[in-house]
Amino acid sequence: MTSGDTAGAALPVEDARSMAGIPDGFGRFWTPYRMAYIHGEGKPADSSARDCPFCAAPGKSDEEGLIVHRGDSCFVLMNLYPYNSGHLLVCPYRHVSMYTDLDADERAEFGELTATAMRVERATAGCQGFNLGMNQGEVAGAGIAAHLHQHIVPRWLGDANFLPIIARTKAVPELLEDARARLAAAWPGED
User: Which residue range forms the structural domain that includes residue 46?
Assistant: First the structure.
């Protein structure tokens, strides 16, 4: 679905007073797409590159792979299950799991792409801060531990509310396709 499909449409929120049972005063913000994440759809079954979504993304069109920028040894793409609008990932093309597995050129480009992503986010979305992070290894919280990736999460004052704390749900006000197009269009060209 693209923003053209939802122009003017209300968010999928349901008032609990209209639901069966005893009204509890809560609204329901339905996010059924998150069930794919919860069930691990698309998550590699093993640590091989064969099933890795980060290895598969560069073989797709930028739009289909949600790729914002392709570098020499690393690329930038949208997080399919974002913590916030504009949530980006920087990945090496090589299927490695640890930052220490990157060679010097990959490490340099990995860092430069992270810095560029932050500049582009500030310029296009006006964010006021960032969360940056790499969870290396399943024990450290990596959803896809076999392929190194850095999270770049833009933040705004007041972007968090009770939903993540109480309902373990995050409202993301921008479609992935729209965010990818915005960021890709603003990415600095090669000089």
Answer: 3-186
